[in-house]
Specification:
This protein is an alpha/beta fold. The chain has 6 helices and 5 strands; from the N terminus they run αβαβαββααβα. Helix 1 crosses helix 2 (40-49) and helix 4 crosses helix 6 (148-169).
């Protein structure tokens, strides 16, 4: 079976970042939502074939059990699971930022709030690698296949997220109640 070009591109970057931060047990999240969740196994297989141990790659899907998430969070923060392939909804409020070095948007989030939720997994206090100065920053990567509709969807989602940020900060849409 032919390798999916998108998954090949994601796997290449994930493996490169994995090797770069291996000595710190840096972890990564790959978000895949709408319609591509069936490809979780294909992406994991690519990562394993390219050198990441199978036990270091786990899934996070919104219908997984509470015990699965407890185990996942513990293993990620300990640096034993190094790549999480996840649905956005599955990681709402997840505290797995301690060793995160990169977040990959494998697809376009459904909305601006989904984009904020995804990036909120990595852009938050508690990343010990960043706070101790062991890494210069974190990576947020997005992947596209160059389709005009996909580019429009990304622009729309980013505009929504930026509007919500401005609204929540009071910069836009302030309402005065007399």
């Amino acid at each position: 079976m032919a390798e999916d070009p998108l998954f090949g591109q994601i796997a290449q970057k994930v493996v490169r970042i994995y090797k770069k931060w291996h000595h710190l047990r840096g972890t990564q999240i790959v978000f895949l939502d709408g319609g591509v969740t069936a490809g979780y196994g294909a992406l994991k297989d690519l990562l394993v074939r390219r050198g990441i141990p199978e036990r270091q790659v786990m899934f996070a899907r919104k219908n997984d059990s509470a015990s699965h998430f407890q185990l996942l969070f513990r293993l990620v923060n300990a640096g034993k699971v190094r790549v999480v392939i996840a649905q956005t909804q599955a990681l709402l409020g997840a505290n797995i930022q301690q060793r995160l070095v990169a977040l990959h948007h494998g697809d376009v989030p459904r909305s601006g709030s989904h984009l904020q939720r995804r990036t909120g997994c990595i852009l938050r206090p508690g990343n010990m690698l960043w706070e101790k100065g062991l890494i210069p920053g974190v990576g947020i990567l997005r992947y596209t296949q160059g389709r005009p509709a996909e580019e429009r969807a990304w622009r729309k989602v980013q505009e929504e997220a930026e509007f919500m940020d401005r609204l929540l900060s009071g910069e836009e849409g302030s309402i005065r109640i007399p």
